[in-house]
TrEMBL record:
Family stated for the protein in its record: Belongs to the ABC transporter superfamily.
Protein's name in the database: ABC transporter ATP-binding protein
Pfam family, one: ABC_tran
GO molecular function, one term: ATP binding
Domain ABC transporter: residue ranges: 4-247
UniProt-listed SUPFAM superfamilies: P-loop containing nucleoside triphosphate hydrolases
Organism encoding this protein: Nonomuraea insulae
Alphabetized UniProt keyword annotations: ATP-binding, Nucleotide-binding, Transport
């Protein structure tokens, strides 16, 4: 069980007259074991919702709960529960320390999550995590520069998994990648979801990608959710005029996509 639930979420940047409301009264539930998409134009507040769940921004109002436990506050229980939510960013190039071998990077994430392990256990777990994302465990000593963009994004996924999360928030994780490797990362996410029973909030401006990976979807505009529902229904028969505009802007929306296999 790992249901992520935002209610009445409001986030402002800045203070006083210069304050900007980035997210306004958002209610959003990501069902346990489900993949929920979040789409909307640039600046609509998608990344702000993601940042709030991992403590990078402080909401002005509202709550975020994981299986009913608050994950926003400063209490010990909130901090512990927050570790069960891991964020993966868009850019696999800046996400990894260029001077640190990828295995060490993954081990560091395990430490940060408070996992105490012996050196041998750590090595074994790093190998296991690299294997999970289809990277040869023998490459643990390699620096990020030795990997392609798609492989680096897989390493950042392994690093997120090092904390043994229940929830992954994937923020535009394929948009910095060549189209040819996007499918590999998307298929990996689908595979991991099934294997590890992850709950996923999947942020993307790419509706074809959202249709491929998400069970349900919410459409954001100007900090509010304008429409939510099953991905198929929302994208095939949008009720909200703004969603209709978004869908109409993607000419291939009705076609099936073949994103290939994870290699
Ligand atoms: N650190 C910040 N300080 C001030 N304003 C910010 C900050 N981060 C985001 N904003 C503003 O908040 C609004 C929501 O931004 P956010 O990044 O959440 O949108 P988004 O939908 O994720 O956009 P994109 O798809 O471009 O990433 C935007 O108007 C943005 O300019």
């Amino acid at each position: 069980m790992s249901t992520l639930e935002y209610s009445g979420m409001t986030v402002r940047y800045g203070h006083g007259a210069g304050a900007h409301v980035a997210v306004q009264g958002v209610d959003l539930t990501v069902a346990s074991g489900g993949v929920h998409g979040l789409v909307g134009e640039s600046g609509s507040g998608k990344s702000t919702l993601a940042a709030a769940a991992v403590g990078l921004v402080r909401p002005a109002a509202g709550s975020i709960r994981l299986d009913g436990t608050d994950i926003v506050g400063h209490s010990a229980s909130a901090r512990t529960a927050r570790r069960r939510v891991q964020l993966i960013f868009q850019d696999p190039f800046s996400a990894l320390d260029p001077r640190m071998p990828v295995g060490a990077s993954i081990a560091e994430a395990m430490r940060a999550a408070g996992r105490r392990r012996t050196r041998a256990e750590k090595t074994r777990r790093v190998e296991e995590l690299l294997g999970l994302v289809h990277i040869d465990p023998a490459r643990a000593e390699d620096l990020p520069a030795a990997f392609s963009g798609g492989q680096r994004q897989r390493v950042t996924i392994a690093r997120a998994l090092a904390a043994d999360p229940d929830v992954i928030i994937a923020d535009e994780i394929t948009s910095a990648l060549d189209v040819s490797v996007q499918g590999v990362v998307l298929n990996l996410l689908r595979e991991l979801r099934a294997e590890l029973n992850l709950t996923i909030l999947f942020i993307s401006h790419n509706l074809a990608v959202v249709r491929y990976v998400c069970d349900t979807v919410s459409v954001m505009r100007h900090g509010r959710i304008v429409e939510s529902g099953d991905t198929g229904s929302v994208l095939s028969a949008p009720r909200d005029p703004y969603t209709r505009e978004l869908v109409a802007a993607v000419p291939v929306m009705g076609e099936r996509f073949d994103w290939g296999e994870v290699s």
